[in-house]
Amino acid sequence: MRQQVVIIGAGPAGLLLGCLLDNAGIDNIILERQTKDYVLARIRAGILEQTTVDMLHYAGAGARLAQEGIAHHGVNIAFGQELENIALGASTGGKVVTAYGQTEVTKDLYDLRMKNGSPTIYSAENVSISDFDTSNPTVSYEQDGSTVTISCDLIAGCDGYHGVSRASIPKSAITAFEKIYPFGWLGVLSDTPPVANEVVYANAPRGFALCSMRSMTRSRYYIQCDLDDKVENWSDDAFWDELKRRLPSQLADEIITGPSLEKSIAPLRSFVAEPLRFGRLLLAGDAAHVVPPTGAKGLNLAFSDIHYLYHAMKSYFADHDDSALDHYSYQALQRVWKTERFSWYLTNLTHRFNDDPFEQRMKEAELAYITSSEAGRQTLAENYVGLPL
Ligand code: APR
Ligand code: PHB
Fold first, then answer.
1. Given 100, 110, 201, 222, which residue is catalytic?
2. pLDDT at 320 > cutoff 90
3. How many A from CA of 317 to the centre of ligand 2?
């Protein structure tokens, strides 16, 4: 079998790239390790930057988002009993963010992919990539006991942090930067109306808390927890009690509680691998970098990679312009590092983790600056709505 592009991973990054390549008439196949049902049920963050929304429309997957997405014109930051709203549009030329779950984004891209009819192989086992440092790379996978080998021009490694793509690169050719945070997030999804119209990030003496939403009837909340904590330790009642204790009372008093639909603990990590190009193998999304969820940048950053990668691939196939692939790595990494910085900054600002009273005062001073200075508000808003591509 031969394809112009083999995409490894059917997460949001792989699916978006596949749909864009389909629209450009570049043939491609997606290989995914998990089942379709597993991939489509995964719950992740749910705040889309304007550029992400624009890309979904450009790909042809924006119809339901236009109907169901909820525009957020501001973001809230709480410290103790203080609650500050930072307007987004005023200082960013009218940009907003949109609340729309990543689960829905994946489903919309999947539906478009099915309509386009290009091949997507779910439950592809033991995907392996070879000869990506030559002009004849191949990708193999196993299914139902037989091995299939695909020759191709380019391989897109969109297979997440634990994927095979980055792991196939010789250690000497790649540099990794990593920071593990000493806490996790315990998240709850529930069919209750959200407590606030826009996301709330709260730094409280008992730790961080976050209020978000999937719709006007479905809420998403998180609290900072210990890394070795277990979901089984948290009854729904215990979660709601702890959440309320970390929010200003004007919000805590308004929270409507209900049974959890999902409850999970996730660790927080910052990670970047450089470069993103290794011959004919190109990394994108979580395969290349991870951000802590504070600021909800993971999906948005994966999509900006795909924006650059798609244009580089188009140039490559149109003009055999090899330099476009190198340029991809350079261009995408510029935005990756700036977004890593913001996610790291917002994580540090809003979490409690080393009980150092001086650092806590620094965070309070930072918040006072950000909220009282026009330049401070603008900096937060500019990063929160997403830096330009
Ligand atoms: N072979 C094939 N597929 C694989 C392999 C493999 N060896 N390893 C991983 N995958 C698949 C995973 O099952 C997953 O469906 O690659 C996909 C990667 O998807 P994501 O982890 O969602 O990564 P990405 O598409 O880059 O999305 C980035 O979305 O999922 C979030 O946290 C993520 O916010 C980030 C953003
Ligand atoms: C979410 O809605 O799940 C969400 C919102 C904002 C974040 C992280 C997650 O920063």
1. 201
2. no
3. 37
- Which CATH number fits the domain 181-268+350-384, given the four candidates 2.60.120.200, 3.40.630.70, 3.30.9.10, 3.40.120.10? 3.30.9.10
Q: Which residue did the predictor score with more confidence, 316 or 79?
A: 316
The pLDDT score that the predictor gives to residue 80 is 87
Q: What percent of the chain has pLDDT over 90?
A: 95
Which residue, by CA, sits nearest to atom 19 of ligand 1?
Answer: 11
pTM above 0.70, yes or no: yes
Q: Are 20 and 306 in contact (CB under 8 A)?
A: yes
**Of 283, 296, 119, residue with least CA distance to 198:** 296
Does residue 293 line the site of ligand 2, with CB under 6 A? yes
Is residue 280 a contact partner of residue 132, using CB atoms and an 8 Å limit?
Answer: yes
**The two three-digit tokens of residue 43, written as one number:** 């719950």
3-state secondary structure of 106: helix
What is the CATH number assigned to the segment(s) 2-70+100-178+269-347? 3.50.50.60
Q: What is the dihedral of CA 311, 315, 318, 319, to 10 degrees?
A: 180
Indicate which ligand has the atom closest to the C-alpha of 38: 1
Ligand 2 mean position to 344 CA, how many Å?
A: 15
Identical fold for domains 2-70+100-178+269-347 and 181-268+350-384, yes or no, is no
What's the pLDDT tens digit per position in 228-242?
999 999 999 999 999
Ligand 2 centroid from CA 47, angstroms: 6
Q: Is the pLDDT of residue 171 over 90?
A: yes
Is residue 276 exposed (0-12), middle (13-18) or buried (19+ Cβ within 10 Å)?
Answer: buried
CA dihedral 344, 56, 66, 262 (to 10 degrees): -50
> Residue 29: which H helix or E strand, with range?
strand 28-31
201 is catalytic: yes
Question: Domains of the chain: which residue ranges?
Answer: 2-70+100-178+269-347, 181-268+350-384
